[in-house]
Amino acid sequence: MTEEEVTRMNKHLLELIIDAGLPFSFSELPSFHRLVNSIRPGTSKVLPNRQKVASNLLSIAAKEAKDNMKGTVEKFIKRGHFGGLLVDGYKNVSGNHIESIMLSVNSNLFPLDVAKAGSDHHGIAVAKVIETEIIKYKDL
Average model confidence (pLDDT) for the chain? Predict the structure, then answer.
């Protein structure tokens, strides 16, 4: 396979894993390797392992998504649309307090970050999280 074909396959593999909610180790399953090899013999030799999916491929996809989001947001802002920063707090399955931060522009939601909120849930603690995110994304 050419480098371009491997890159495209890896992108589609990550998309499949995310869309189906599969674990990153899916790429290492012998049955998946057999399926891929039945379509194109020898292809399983270039499949990424779970570590590469979780680090390299996910990082590349996140950067692409952020770049695409930034371009979309810039188009809306140039057209005179306003944006708002949304913060939603909840507990994850481990009982940790989490806050998700999203940008809303022209009825579109763009996830920006997920931050561990700690144990404080009063207005000042939430305001500090919002302030941190505004500083982090001020150039967006």
Answer: 82
